[in-house]
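Table S2 (text version). Query chain:
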Amino acid sequence: MNEMTFVAPTLTSRLTCACNCAYGIDKQSGKYEPPAIYHDGAGWTDGPAAISAPESGQPDGPRINACLVGRNQDGIILAFRGTLPPAWTVASLEDWWQDIVDAEPVAAPPLPGAVHSGFLAALETLWQNVVQEVQRLRAEHPSAPVLVTGHSKGGPMASIAAARLYLSEGLSIGGVTTFASPHPGDRDFVHGYPSDIEVTRYENYLDLVPFLPPTDAFFAVWKGLPTSWKKSFCDWLEPICKVLDAAGNWHYESLGKLLFVTREGTVVGSGNGQADPEYRIGQIVMALFGFESVEAMNAAARAGRDVQGSESGLQRIGAAHCIACPCSQPGKLCAGGYMTGAGGKPICPAD
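Corresponding C-alpha cell output:
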C-alpha cells in the first residue's frame, strides 16, 4: 500500500478531503482525530477546529452533528459531516432513509421558502460556535474566501449554513460545494437562494441519496414503474413507502449546478444523458432488483414478472454514496466516485 501523503491536486479534491476529515470527529468525545491521508490532502494551514453536538433534546447522546472550520490555501473551509448507516442492509437503511424522506420543510426566515426540518435542527445545534469560529478566522484573514462544503447530510447543512452566513451575518461566501447531498429545501428555497452564492453539487452513479426527499421529477419516474415492482419495493422497504405520499406535497428541489460522476468516473453536466434523472433512477432500480442489464429489466417489466430486492444491490448503492477513496475490502466497500470525480485519486493508496 502506498503510504505517501500530500496535498490533493485540485480545489474540489481538497474539499472532498475536508469532508472526509469531518468524519474524524469522534462521536463520543467530539475530539478531532486526523485521518492521515485526508488531513494532509485537505492541506490545512490553520486548524481545523472541531465543532460537534448531540441532537436537540438529547444532551447526553452521541455528538452526531459535526463540522470542521479551518483554513487552507483556498480559503476558510467549513466542512459539515454526514451521517452514514452502520451497514448497507435493509435493517440499517430503513430508519436512516426515513429520517431523510419524512421531513416536511419549514419556514426559517431570513432564508427563502422552506427548508428540511431535520437538517435545519442539526445545524442549529452547531450554529453559534460555527459563526464564532468563522468570524475569528475571517478577522485574521480578511481576504480569505469562505468555502462551505459537506457530504451526505452535511450537504444540505452546508447549503443552509452558507445562506444564513450571508443573510444573517453579512459574510460573503466564496462558494458551496456538496457531495451526495439530499435536497435542502423546497422549490421556493431553491429559487430564492442568494444569487451571489455559487452552489455546485456532485452526484455519483448509483447514488440514491441525491434524489431524497423525493422531487416532483422523482415521483414522475416512480409512477411509471410497473405496479408489481413498486409493491415489491414497498414490501421490502416499507417505512420509506409509508412517507412517500406525504412527501409528494412538499415540492423539494435540487439546489445548484449539477456535476455528475459517471460509471466510468468522468464528470458531465446536467445536459448529458447519463446525468438524466430518469436514466439514473432506472440504473438504481436495476441494481436494487439485481438486473444485469437494462434489456433484462425491460423484458421483466413487459412480461409482468415479480422482482425481489437484492442485498448486493444495496451494497453497490451504499458504495456509490461513499466519499472516501476506492476500496473493495469487505465491510469497507467504497466506489470512490466522488473522490475520483473531484480529481483526488492521486492521494489514494492502492486498493
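Notes on Table S2: Residues 11-344 form a domain with the Rossmann fold fold (CATH 3.40.50.1820). The chain has 14 helices and twelve strands.
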